[in-house]
Write a structure and sequence with these properties.
56% of the residues lie in helices and 4% in strands. The chain has 497 residues and is mostly helical. A hairpin with a 3-residue loop joins strand 5 and strand 6.
């Protein structure tokens, strides 16, 4: 009895621990139930505290099931007319994918080296899909929200399979897509080929994507501050009592990743739509009636952009970092004179030609554009029929804008950074007193240093004059107040000449 209670039953020899496939299947079921509970518990809690709720507990469970399916990107139907609802709350999707990724990684590590170890990873996927079948069946009958059985199961299975496959990758394996990118770059002519640059191009694309997401977050933050200062918009939502406020805040939280992606599309220029015939962009905003929801209160006022065009500076800043990374790698410089080392990926080998550096920047821009198209499509969808049949960014316009901004900005920055790194590696002009690399030509450095010394001397003189007695000049030999003056040379008691 002590041995049975002292360790988990799933690890007990001779029991379930000796059946890795069954253990992995239960891991998939547990992962799905954990994600479902994250949605179900708040929904049931709000149903309990809501007075005069329209639906019973079955309706609340149906709503939780619909939200769980929407989080995976599976569309559902709403109302008796079957209005499509396909705006996926990406907050729930990220939670589900992250849990599956970790669960598959643990199962793959536990089954490494065992016969049939890969079967455990497939069992995780099967267990997750078994729970999805139960959720779809519970949400398939008549009600306010209805699942489309085949389409929803296919979408959940596809998302779960991608997350499990990514989590089960072998430790130390090349990042996803690097080998395919290396083969694509190897097919280019030699004079424009960034040899061995696939990992660097991938890192540069990730840096550009992170910069664009940061730009979207900054746009949303500024819009929230302006809406809070203006006040009034969306206030009707908060008049429904504490339960309504809590529900709206939870829904806003799970839709926050969507909002950041909409903000990134706004900063890129094409903007996004809030219904048919509408556009919200830095250049122009055209709106119709929008639902009363706090996130829609952040929308810009209709009319020309004006000062909002300043948001387009953010994507330009996002393209500087990948340009610096590519330029540092294009020079193939692993270190700096004097033992210093620059930040960024280091690619050993011969320097790339200028044309190859530009090609690397263009490829990173294409990667960012492809990711922007996919994320823009995931962040949008239908909120109803008629004019609300599409909300969010237009994927293809967003992709073109993202690829263009990154390529146009990072290409010249990469060329300049490459030229600079090559001059430093060759011991060219510009050695500084701190790192051994001169930052400016010699004559300009001498002039700047002389000016700095003169400015410091004048500042010291001004402080010294202000510290002396008013109306009397102060010399460095003047005694401090209360201290007897030293006798002059030749006076009695003074020093001999």
């Amino acid at each position: 009895m002590t041995q049975l209670t002292g360790r988990p039953i799933l690890e007990a020899p001779g029991e379930l621990g000796a059946r890795p496939v069954l253990s992995a299947l239960l891991t998939g079921v547990r992962t799905a139930l954990l994600g479902l509970s994250v949605v179900t518990v708040p929904v049931l809690g709000l149903w309990v505290v809501t007075p005069f709720a329209d639906d019973g507990a079955a309706g609340a469970l149906r709503l939780a099931s619909a939200l769980w399916l929407l989080g995976h990107g599976a569309p559902v139907l709403r109302g008796p007319a079957g209005v499509p609802l396909s705006v996926a709350p990406l907050g729930l999707g990220l939670l589900a994918v992250g849990q599956l990724y970790r669960a598959a990684g643990r199962v793959a590590a536990r089954g490494a080296g065992r016969p049939g170890g890969r079967g455990g990873v497939r069992a995780v996927w099967a267990g997750y899909c078994a729970v999805a079948c139960a959720v779809v069946a519970q949400c398939a009958g008549a009600g306010e929200f209805r699942a489309r059985v085949v389409a929803d199961l296919a979408v959940v299975a596809l998302v779960a399979g991608a997350a499990v496959a990514a989590g089960a990758r072998r430790p130390g394996a090349a990042p996803a897509g690097v080998e395919a990118l290396e083969r694509a770059l190897a097919g280019l002519p030699e004079r424009v080929r960034p040899t061995g640059g696939a990992p660097v191009v991938r890192v540069a694309a990730l840096a550009a994507g992170a910069g664009l997401l940061a730009a979207g977050g900054l746009v949303v933050a500024v819009a929230a501050v302006l809406a809070a200062v203006g006040g009034g918009a969306g206030s009707a939502v908060f008049a429904g009592g504490p339960a309504a406020v809590a529900g709206v805040l939870l829904l806003t939280l799970v839709l926050l990743p969507n909002t950041v992606l909409w903000g990134a599309a706004y900063a890129l220029g094409p903007g996004f739509a809030v219904g048919a015939g509408t556009v919200v962009s830095p250049v122009l905003t055209v709106l119709g009636p929008v639902p009363e929801f706090p996130l829609f209160a952040l929308l810009a006022e209709p009319g020309a952009g004006g000062w909002r065009l300043a948001a387009c500076v953010l994507p330009a800043l996002a393209g500087v970092v990948p340009g610096l990374l590519l330029g540092r790698a294009a020079a193939a410089d692993g270190g700096l004179p004097g033992g210093g080392r620059a930040a960024g990926p280091v690619r050993p080998g011969a320097p790339w030609p200028v044309a190859a550096t530009v090609v690397a920047a263009l490829v990173s821009g294409l990667l960012v554009g492809g990711a922007a198209a996919g994320l823009g499509w995931l962040a949008g969808g239908a909120l109803g029929a008629g004019r609300m049949a599409w909300l969010g960014p237009v994927p293809w316009w967003t992709a073109l804008a993202a690829a263009g901004w990154v390529a146009v900005v990072s290409a010249p920055v990469a060329v300049l950074a490459r030229s600079r790194a090559l001059r430093v590696a060759a011991g060219g002009p510009g050695r500084s007193w701190r790192s051994g690399v001169r930052l400016v030509p010699g004559a300009l450095a001498v002039t700047a240093r002389r000016g700095a010394l003169l400015l410091r001397a004048r500042a010291y003189g001004a402080v010294t004059r202000l510290a002396g007695a008013p109306g009397a000049p102060t010399s460095p030999a003047a005694p401090a107040p209360g201290v007897p003056a030293a006798p002059a040379p030749g006076a009695p008691g003074g020093p001999a000449r």
